[in-house]
Amino acid sequence: MPRKVVILAATSVLALAACSKKPPEELPPAPVQTPAPAPTAAPAPAPTPTPTGPVAGSQAHFSQVMAGRDVIFFDTDKFDIDSEDAAALRSQAEYLLQYGRATATIEGHADERGTRDYNLALGERRANAAKNYLVSLGVSENRLRTVSYGEERPAATGSNESAWARNRRAVTVLID
User: Fold this and answer.
1) Distance of alpha carbon 155 from alpha carbon 163, whole angstroms
2) Which of 15, 58, 91, 172 has the fewest C-beta atoms under 10 angstroms from its C-beta?
3) How far, in Å, CA of 102 to CA of 114, rounded?
4) Cβ neighbours of residue 155 under 8 Å, at least 6 residues apart?
5) How do the domains of the chain map onto residue ranges?
6) pLDDT greater at residue 138 or residue 13
7) Which of 170, 91, 71 is nearest to 137 (CA)?
8) 121 Cβ partners below 8 Å, 6+ apart?
9) Does CATH place domain 59-175 in 3.30.1330.60?
10) 166 to 40, 76, 83, 113, 145: CA distances (angstroms)
11) In Å, how far are 96, 109, 161 from 164, measured between CA atoms?
């Protein structure tokens, strides 16, 4: 075994010696000094534009772009999507498809009439109706969740038809 080690070491030394470089016969000329170019004023970098308005894909941006179409309204004791609601939901779907990372909660609401349990169930049906319509337009179901607030979060106070009409709604809210 030691003899193999000696032979291997000798072979390595010979191989390395064969690779040694010989000095060149003639050296390259010395470097020539060239004058440095006159300094020129670099153009000022363009200013970075300051973002104005809300960040794209945020709740603030969604609300701004939707301009009121983030809310759909329902008739008394109803949860069906009419043509006006469908147009608003199409706008919401376009936004959600454009900003593929955005996720949303659809809040279902009811007016103050009816029992608490009835209004929670009606709010849930309204939120699910909006969600199902968005899904039918191509928005992935796993990007949408629903919640029902029933009569607990009114948009308008008052016990009259005007207030009730504003409270029978589904609101799409982006989750930041």
Assistant:
1) 8
2) 15
3) 34
4) 109, 166, 167, 169
5) 59-175
6) 138
7) 91
8) 148
9) yes
10) 66, 11, 18, 13, 22
11) 29, 10, 5
Query: Residue 115 corresponds to which amino acid?
Result: T
CA distances from 172 to 41, 43, 44, 85, 95 (A): 53, 48, 45, 12, 12
Tokens of 164: 């009730």
Q: Which two tokens stand for residue 33?
A: 């000094």
Tens digits of per-residue pLDDT, 18-64? Answer: 555 666 667 667 677 767 666 666 666 767 666 678 888 999 999 99
For 30-50, letters b (16+ CB in 10 Å) and e give eeeeeeeeeeeeeeeeeeeee
Q: What distance in Å separates the CA atoms of residue 96 and residue 92, rounded to the nearest whole number?
A: 6
